[in-house]
Amino acid sequence: MIEDLRKGRFTLPAETGIDNDVKRIIEKWGADAIRNSDGTILSKELIKGLIIR
């Protein structure tokens, strides 16, 4: 049960140009959703990486 609570249930705000940082945080913190925080469109790489995870 504790293992299940360590990752997920976290929405990560993302901005254009920080894809590598966002990918690293997704893996480290286990984000289960991302959203754009600067009004731009999220990269397809970020969206695809999160869906596959």
What does this entry look like structurally?
The protein is α+β, with helices and mostly antiparallel strands and about 55 residues long. The chain has one domain. About 45% of the residues lie in helices and about 15% in strands. A two-stranded parallel sheet has the order 1-2. Helix 2 (about 20-30) runs parallel beside helix 3 (about 45-50). The radius of gyration is 11 Å and the shape is globular.
Task: Lay out the secondary structure.
Layout (H helix, E strand, L loop, with lengths): L1 H4 L5 E4 L4 H11 L3 E4 L7 H9 L1
Parallel strand pairs: 1-2
Helix pairs in contact: 2-3
Mean of the pLDDT scores? 77
Gross morphology: globular
Q: Main beta sheet, described? A: 2 strands, parallel
**Given the structure, what is the number of helices?**
3
Number of domains: 1
Please tell me how large the radius of gyration is: 11 Å
Listing every helix as H and every strand as E from the N terminus to the C terminus, the arrangement reads: HEHEH
| Structure summary, number of beta strands | 2
Q: What is the compact description of this entry?
A:
The chain has three helices and two strands. It is an alpha+beta fold and 53 residues long.
Keywords:
single chain; 53 residues; alpha+beta; two-stranded parallel ribbon; 3 helices; 2 strands; globular
